[in-house]
Fold these 2 entries.
Entry 1:
Amino acid sequence: MQTLDTLVQASEIARLLNEATSIAIVGLSPKENRPSNMVGRYLLDAGFTIYPVNPGQKEILGESCYADLRSIPHPIDIVDVFRKSEDVFQVVEQLLKLNPLPRVLWMQQGIVNEAAAELARKKGVFVVMDRCIKVDHHNLKS
């Protein structure tokens, strides 16, 4: 049974996904069989502008790759994180230095960092944890 909180969060996620146009994918892998790559391809096919963030790569999925969030020269609506839970706090510290601030911090399925989430929320960033952006976006279209 869904609670009021989960219904409100689902409604907000739907609204934000419908309004967003740009997504930075932190930890995007160039390997086609990796979940981050599959999600990146899906988001491109769905019409989003993606910004791969992977310091070891120059290009992923035909898009220029950036070493970190601060290197992206465009506003970002959503920061989608494919990193270990313990690495998310560092990502949030970078995110909070961006101007304008991204609207959403999205931690993919299996990624949970309450301290990082709280820091982002305190600055007005909506936080999604332990959910797959591909699944949520696909369910909106169904």
Entry 2:
Amino acid sequence: MILVVDCGNSRLKWGLHDRNGWLKSGTVPVPGLARLKRTWKKIPPPDKIVVANVAGQSARRKLNGILPGRGTAPIWVAAKRHECGVTNGYGKPSQLGPDRWAALVGAWSMFHGACLVVAAGTATTVDVLGSNGTFAGGMILPGLDLMKRSLAQNTAGLPMTRGRFSRAPRNTADAIESGCLLAQTGAIETAFAAMEPGAICVLAGGAAPRIAPHLSIPVRLVDNLVLEGLVRIANESPE
């Protein structure tokens, strides 16, 4: 039994996997981590616990106090030079975020080919994974809602309201929604244009369903891509 945890800047996602499939999963806001203690008491004791944490040391300390399993020390994922068939092209491999690393591992384990791995959350990460399993590099840009929020907070008169996409917006809300969506898709499609033939875009994250319909490239939507990668990392780690 494997418990995997993806602790992002705003939300934590977790899943319980029996090496055949998912048994349970859930999500909580990072400020509400304490409520997981009661939830995790109800699950079978895991043999392994694997965590990707990008929410800092405070979140790590809180998780250490509530993770289940007596005598089961959590594995805190850090990007490596080589793992699970993926080679890390960063000059300093550990500088790559553990969530991005796990997403790359997840994409490779699922598709075994060239992928543009996109995680569309608070930030949007766009990472190039070659057909030989090498992560060649990637970029980070503000996520869809963060783009909209920055306009609302830093520009007088622009509201933080949900608009509708349009190729020719005729009101402010639609103009913001359309501009931010096209900024996201433009970055993704520009990166994809440099990919090798036969590549696909693997798209995950909370904003993925909003972005996917506006992409004109081959897209595979994947729920919980980071958790998928964490399971593969757990299976390769020593007992």
